[in-house]
């Protein structure tokens, strides 16, 4: 059996508008790389990045702790983490580390777990940063492609995205609060009215149909959220302008990526993606905010780095 394994896991965008906590899409914009090595005992974390190195407060550390306990593994594990996904910008940064770690642990100890179990363990690690468990980002990062998360019991449905689906993600240069996801979950309504729920469900259904039919236009024009996006948009300077500009430049749909503050525009490979990126940058500039834009496409899930 191997004594060391390196796994690379992608960034992801959660919600896709109306699919709050249910939809996730793995995107090839950024990757985290995690190397697990068997040691004599304990859990140690090695990193050059600015993340907690106490396993109890570290996403990857918690995943290893939970998996060691569940499978009664006595060996120690060294976790080497190289962050590529920026933390706190709505691209599933902690989820990528958790996903890479769960997949690496499974391979290192030959557990041969199924997708739902890997997602569950990865989700247990995400608790370290988000404060609560939601599986949309981890599911996308573990399995790749588009995912629908059913809970109680956890059951993740994966759909292969259209090959011509493209996204432009605009990452604003902002100072984000340390527990950003917790903060941005605090502003969303606890109760919603039936009319809004009907609208969001119809659009969520449209998104699923769009992925099943491999139809970026249907995906894009269903990215409409009347519940969470309106409650969170004040946290993103220039959001409405970024959205308006991207749509004018030809984007099919635009929304907050996960809990923000990044904004994601959906499009297809035949569109002028550069024009959409520039339009989004100008939107942020109108609120005196600089941003980085990345043109990306759906990614496969966490995998052995050599493959
Ligand atoms: N669905 C989550 C949210 C994703 O929007 O709060 C954040 O990681």
From TrEMBL:
Enzyme Commission designation: 2.7.1.39
Which molecular function term from Gene Ontology is one that the record holds?
homoserine kinase activity
Residues of the GHMP kinase C-terminal domain: 209-282
> What positions does the domain GHMP kinase N-terminal occupy?
62-145
User: Does the UniProt entry include the keyword Ribonucleoprotein?
Assistant: no
| Keyword set includes Transcription | no
Q: Which domain of life is it from?
A: Archaea
- Positions contributing to ATP binding: 86-96
Identify the InterPro entries for this entry: GHMP_kinase_C_dom (IPR013750), GHMP_kinase_C_sf (IPR036554), GHMP_kinase_N_dom (IPR006204), GHMP_knse_ATP-bd_CS (IPR006203), Homoserine_kinase (IPR000870), Ribosomal_Su5_D2-typ_SF (IPR020568), Ribsml_uS5_D2-typ_fold_subgr (IPR014721)
Q: Which UniProt keywords apply?
A: Amino-acid biosynthesis, ATP-binding, Cytoplasm, Kinase, Nucleotide-binding, Threonine biosynthesis, Transferase
Which GO CC terms are listed, alphabetically? cytoplasm
Q: What Pfam families does this protein map onto? A: GHMP_kinases_C (PF08544), GHMP_kinases_N (PF00288)
Q: Where is it mostly found? A: cytoplasm
The kind of enzyme this is, by top-level EC class, is: transferase
Q: Which Gene3D superfamilies match?
A: 3.30.230.10, GHMP kinase, C-terminal domain (3.30.70.890)
Among the GO biological process terms of this entry, one is: threonine biosynthetic process
Q: Which SUPFAM superfamilies would you find in this protein's record?
A: GHMP Kinase, C-terminal domain, Ribosomal protein S5 domain 2-like
Question: Where in the cell?
Answer: Cytoplasm
Pathway noted in the entry: Amino-acid biosynthesis; L-threonine biosynthesis; L-threonine from L-aspartate: step 4/5
What job does this protein perform? Catalyzes the ATP-dependent phosphorylation of L-homoserine to L-homoserine phosphate.
Family designation: Belongs to the GHMP kinase family. Homoserine kinase subfamily.
Q: Name the NCBIfam families for this protein.
A: PRK01212.1-4, thrB
User: What is the protein name for this chain?
Assistant: Homoserine kinase
What species was this sequence derived from? Candidatus Nitrosopumilus salarius BD31
Name of the encoding gene: thrB
């Amino acid at each position: 059996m191997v004594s060391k394994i390196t796994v690379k896991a992608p960034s992801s965008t959660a919600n896709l508008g109306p699919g709050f906590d249910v939809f996730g899409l793995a995107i090839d914009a950024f990757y985290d790389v995690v190397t697990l090595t068997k040691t004599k005992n304990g859990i140690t974390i090695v990193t050059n990045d600015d993340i907690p190195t106490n396993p109890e407060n570290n996403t990857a550390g918690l995943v290893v702790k939970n998996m060691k306990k569940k499978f009664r593994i006595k060996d120690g594990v060294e976790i080497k983490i190289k962050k590529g996904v920026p933390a706190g910008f709505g691209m599933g940064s902690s989820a990528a580390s958790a996903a890479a770690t769960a997949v690496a642990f499974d391979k290192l100890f030959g557990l041969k777990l199924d997708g739902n179990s890997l997602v569950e363990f990865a989700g247990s690690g995400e608790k370290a940063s988000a404060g609560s468990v939601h599986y949309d980002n981890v599911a996308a990062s573990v399995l790749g492609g588009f995912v629908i998360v059913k809970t109680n019991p956890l059951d993740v449905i994966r759909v292969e995205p259209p090959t011509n689906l493209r996204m432009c993600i605009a990452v604003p240069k902002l100072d984000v609060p340390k527990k950003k996801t917790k903060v941005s979950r605090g502003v969303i309504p606890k109760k919603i009215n039936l009319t809004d729920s009907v609208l969001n469900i119809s659009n969520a259904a449209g998104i699923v149909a769009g992925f099943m039919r491999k139809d970026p236009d249907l995906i894009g024009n269903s990215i409409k959220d009347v519940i969470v996006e309106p409650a969170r948009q004040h946290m993103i300077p220039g959001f409405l302008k970024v959205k308006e500009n991207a749509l004018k430049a030809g984007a099919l749909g635009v929304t907050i990526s996960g809990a923000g503050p990044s904004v994601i525009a959906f499009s297809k490979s035949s569109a002028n993606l550069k024009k959409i990126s520039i339009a989004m940058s100008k939107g942020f500039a109108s609120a005196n905010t600089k941003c980085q834009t990345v043109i990306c496409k759906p990614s496969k899930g966490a995998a052995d780095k050599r493959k």
